[in-house]
Please model this.
Amino acid sequence: MHHSIEKLLGVQKFDREISLLEEAKIRRPMELSDDLRKVNAGKASVSAVEEVIKSCRMDIDKGELQVKELDGEIEKSKIAMNGSKTNEEFSICKGQIEKHEESQGTLEENVLELMSHLDTLQGKKEEAERELADIEKAYQRKESEVNGLVSGLESRIGGLKEERGELSVDIDQDHLDIYERVRSKVDADSVVPVHKKDEGEGVFFCQGCYMRVTKQELTQLALAQELLTCRSCSRLLYLED
Ligand SMILES: [Zn+2]
Model:
């Protein structure tokens, strides 16, 4: 086997492991997406209750204002009643006062109902906030766990890259360039053996793309003096010892 192939196979072993770890590094944080969705749903529940509380408070304020306005109307009617000169005037004012007081009673009842509804809503808000706090706590726990795993992966990747670098200084730069070029193209192993399809026949195939290797190429591989690439997929080929 050509000495560069031997070393490139070592580099390839590192590259395989590095790319597996890189994939895991990307995949790990994705495990958080479900929990993040739960956190956002929890936040949405809290704000939904807050919105209802806001509009309930506005209704209460509006009702209280209307009750106060009727106080003014009643006061006016009372003054008019005291100044009335005829029985008719007096009874009209009295009727107005009664009408206003009736409306006021209904409004006050509504305000009381709204206030009790507001209490229920406050309870709901507190419950939603407690749930959100639990969800956030679980998310943070998982996030720090994932961050720990990711930084563990990063340091392993760093170590492997260092070892790979040490191994590649010994390799002929031209040969390393071929390796890198093919690897970036096929995004998989760029050094592959040639194998026989079945034992009986002396026909060999590239194990990257299954292209048949010619007799001349096979001789070249057996001599192992020069590097040989596959005519079809450009992978570096070698004959196993
Ligand atoms: Zn091939």
About this structure: The pocket of zinc ion is lined by residues 206, 208-209, 211, 230, 232-233, 235 (CB under 6 Å). The chain has two domains: 31-167, 173-238. The two ends are 7 Å apart (CA to CA). Residues 31-167 form a domain with the Helix Hairpins fold (CATH 1.10.287.1490).
